[in-house]
Amino acid sequence: MAFRAVDWYDTPLYYDIIFDQHTAAEVAFVEAMYERWIGARGKRRVLEPACGSGRLVAALVERGFAVNGFDANQSMLDFAARRMVARRVSASLRVGRMESFSYRRPFDLAHCFVSTFKYLTRAADARAHLERVADALVPGGVYLLGFHLTEYEDRSTDRERWHEARGGIDVRCEVETAPADPRARLEEVRSRLTVQRSGRLVARQETNWKFRTYSAAQFRRLVARVPALELVAVHDFDYDPAVTHELGTDRLDVVAVLRRRD
Fold this sequence. Notes:
alpha/beta, Rossmann fold, N-terminal domain of TfIIb, five-stranded mixed β-sheet, 35% strand
């Protein structure tokens, strides 16, 4: 069976299965960051831009947070809504874009992991997104933004492979990232999913897209263009709240903590 061109966001079950391995660590990290930066003064209101299949939305609601999420893909939102019903939890979910959303009531904390931010390939959209997040946060609120930095001098192709299974469905994932174009600030990314049900091959699908790239200096300059936000800490994709880094020194996978200025 040849690989077929499919947007992996249109197959939310498979997408959910391959990323669910991170859920427990991500949720524990969000809770720890909430206690560290917000604490008792907050109202436990959380926003997730690009909430996808709702795995973090549901888990945070179960931990006592009031969660709002939005996503540009209706298939993902439908899957998330079914998850809320199955787990008997409630959250506000809606269609929205990262560069143009708004809410009336502010949030204590927002989060967006797994490099979703890099889908904003235009500089104006990336800045607009951070400005929208700042507008959506209370003074002193924080945005946890997870993404990979780029080493432009590295001209090798990066490949990551893993597989996860659930309910008789086995999903193998390979993500390939080509060397970045430093002038265009873009990198070509391809994901391939191979899916088996009860040992039988049922799907092979491929998704291609472009990410905007950031060195540490480029990300700092972007944040500096959004005066309402300040970079106050940097963690990594291990999601250990006790471990912090200087941006761009020893890890390319970063979770930046951006604080809304008082």
